[in-house]
Design goal:
about 375 residues; four-stranded antiparallel β-sheet; Ribosomal Protein S5, domain 2; alpha+beta; eight-stranded mixed β-sheet; binds ligand DP6
Length: about 375
């Protein structure tokens, strides 16, 4: 299988110790990934805007084990405090990726992470969190294999991130990333995300995303469980086919600067995602009353002003309000005056499209 090409053939003997820090962004899908098969492969192609302000900063400190053993040796520090809750997810992640990064068992790690967005804001932190660890591990690999090209580096980082959380593979590059094989997207793959390099009209540059924190609690149904419910879902086949068509459509929309087409497609994708949840067995609803209030307010505002503002949703109650940079002032006023009342504690986060992962530091300690 093709994934073999990502297994290193020979690596130099690694440094005794070191520390690497990466900042990686969150992303918001326009055509949604919902449904997967082993090993974390998507049932349909998805595309997302990479975000900028919502990000994770992770430092990976590594030290050669004094006594070799066959287990993963790591500690997690989240927002300055030792964290046990994230360990099982990272342990699973390490099991999935160890074949690709065989040096993982030779070291003891401290993974220290912090998010730019408030904890339990309902913003998916798995995308930025997993991609940050993946980037740090790739920096380690680069030290062991100086021949690794930039292209190979980012592809493999995305592949590793995918094995942590599917959508994380779209949190390595910017501004638009496609994940999942599609006949009209050159180089696209189920194994990793690729930058969308086809024509994009200027109206879509620096697109704005204000995230309204409608509900900040733990989700009742995790994304992983939700994905699982697409197996045997009565509408799954049609949904996956529709997503493939929507990728073809959005490609045209970007090329033509068709903002009305963008609004229609993106809002339909969001509602379809939630319709899949509501028609799963067992069924579930992640939207809250205020999610619907916001959607209606946006529709009303658009009708009365001719604005090009629209919304999308991820697997939760929060609303991502999307709009062109040219409307930044007016839409942000609208949000401040009319939408903030639907947010928990009046909280929202202004963000915009960003350019992907950043190396902050790489030191020998
Ligand atoms: C609704 O990537 O969080 O945000 O692969 O199980 O970790 P796992 O799921 P995850 O699913 C995200 C789903 C989504 C849509 C999307 O981001 O495309």
């Amino acid at each position: 299988m093709m994934e073999q090409t990502f297994i290193p053939k020979s690596l130099k003997v690694g440094k005794e110790s070191g520390k690497i820090t990466w900042q990686t962004p969150s992303n918001i899908a326009l055509v949604k990934y919902w449904g997967k098969r082993d090993p974390q492969l998507p049932e349909n192609t998805s595309i997302s805007f990479t975000l900028s302000n919502c990000h994770t900063i992770t430092s990976l400190t590594y030290k050669k084990k004094e006594v070799k053993n066959d287990s993963f040796d790591f500690e997690v520090v989240f927002e300055g405090e030792k964290n046990e809750a994230f360990k099982p997810k990272i342990e699973t992640f390490f099991h999935r990726i160890v074949a690709y990064v065989p040096f993982l068992k030779e070291y003891s790690f401290v993974i220290a992470s912090k998010n730019s967005f408030p904890h339990s804001s309902g913003i998916a932190s798995s995308a930025s969190g997993m991609s940050a660890i993946a980037m740090c591990l790739m920096s380690m690999e680069k030290e062991l294999n100086s021949e690794l090209s930039d292209e190979e580096f980012y592809k493999k980082a995305s592949l590793l991130a995918r094995l942590g959380s599917g959508s994380a593979c779209r949190s390595v590059k910017g501004a638009l990333v496609v994940w999942g094989e599609h006949s009209e997207i050159e180089g696209s793959s189920d194994l990793y995300g690729v930058e969308f390099t086809d024509a994009v009209a200027p109206v879509f540059n620096n697109y704005q995303d204000t995230i309204l924190l409608v509900d900040k609690g733990e989700k009742q149904v995790s994304s992983t469980v939700g994905h699982g419910l697409m197996h045997g879902h009565p509408f799954a086949t049609q949904r996956f086919a529709q997503a493939q068509e929507n990728i073809s459509k959005i490609k045209e929309i970007f090329a033509n600067g068709d903002v009305d087409g963008f609004i229609a497609l993106v809002e339909s994708e969001a509602l379809t995602l939630h319709a899949m949840m509501m028609t799963s067995h067992p069924y579930f609803i992640l939207m809250k009353p205020n999610t619907l209030e916001v959607i209606h307010k946006i529709w009303e505002y658009r009708k009365h002003t001719g604005s090009k503002v629209c919304f999308t949703l991820d697997a939760g109650a929060n609303v991502h309000v999307l709009y062109p940079e040219s409307e930044k002032e007016t839409v942000q006023t609208f949000i401040k005056e009319e939408l903030f009342v639907y947010c928990k504690n009046g909280e929202y986060i202004h963000d915009q499209v960003g350019m992907g992962a950043k190396l902050l530091d790489s030191t020998h300690i």
